Amino acid sequence: MKRLLALLLALLLALPIAAQGEYFNPRDINDAREQAMDVFKLCAFSGEYYSSGRNYIVRWKKPIKIYVTGAPTAQDLQTLDDFIMELGLRVPCMPPVTRVGSQSSANIVMYFCPLAEIGSHIPDYVEGNWGYFSFRFNDYLINKASIGIATDVTSQQERNHLLQEELVGALGLGNDHWQYDDSILYQGWTTVQRLSEVDWLMLNFLYSPQVKPGNKQAQAEKALRQFYGF
How many Cα atoms within 13 Å fall on the side-chain side of residue 167? Predict the structure, then answer.
């Protein structure tokens, strides 16, 4: 979920290199977990635009069923299918994720549509975002989400990035960060095509059996540190 107005993009590109993030490059697995924990605390306990009032974990429990509508390209669908397969392999404690053929059986709807139409599909859409997600939850469990991807102002490479970024947000990592610019959740505009290892670590933190929906930051951090030993 990023605000991608042309003026903001120009400003971001004009920033000096020192103001940008860095690649995730840990010394070892414990260093990787330590660095991922710092970013996890930024991404998992708030939202990019609507962070007030939530300082606890929310995530899915029921199987996640995604319905795609609008005008996706064949590559959009292939990128999504490949990402779904990778989620199943790399986040084994996450509920199963599948793409379904009917909206009535889905709990995530992904709209590929012109930029001006995203707001008609997602009521809390923030103007100017080429990709956007919104989810609903009850008792700390996400039960419904919507994702919008603009088709008229994006290249294929940009859509590949956005659909992964917004889906990761809809899974419960609702905020961005400025730390690692190879992360799919980096706040600045990038077109990285795959999740960084820091993203996979955060997803595994979020769906770890040691973490419970509703855990606040200190509770989740303590449980994860005790389990992983870092």
Answer: 29
Q: 170 φ, ψ to 5°?
A: -70, -20
User: Which DSSP string corresponds to 60-129?
Assistant: E-SPEEEEEEE---HHHHHHHHHHHHHHHHH-TTSPPEEE-S-GGG-SEEEEEE-GGGHHHH-TTPPTTE
Residue 1 lies in a domain: no
What does pTM read for this prediction?
Answer: 0.90
- Quick one: residue 126, left, alpha or beta (phi over 0 = left, psi -120 to 50 = alpha)? beta
Report the domain count for the chain: 1
Residue 7, in any domain of the structure: no
8 A C-beta contact, residue 195 and residue 39? no
pLDDT for 121: 97
6 assigned to some structural domain = no
Q: Does residue 15 lie in a domain region?
A: no
For residue 165, the enclosing domain spans: 28-228
Q: Tell me: the pLDDT tens digits for 27-86?
A: 999 999 999 999 999 999 988 776 555 799 999 999 999 999 999 999 999 999 999 999
Q: Residue 6: its pLDDT value, please?
A: 35
Lowest mean pLDDT among 37-51, 135-149, 197-211: 37-51
CATH of the domain at 146: 3.40.390.10
**Could you tell me if 145 and 121 are in contact, meaning their C-beta atoms sit under 8 angstroms apart?**
no
Dist CA 209 CA 14 (whole Å): 43
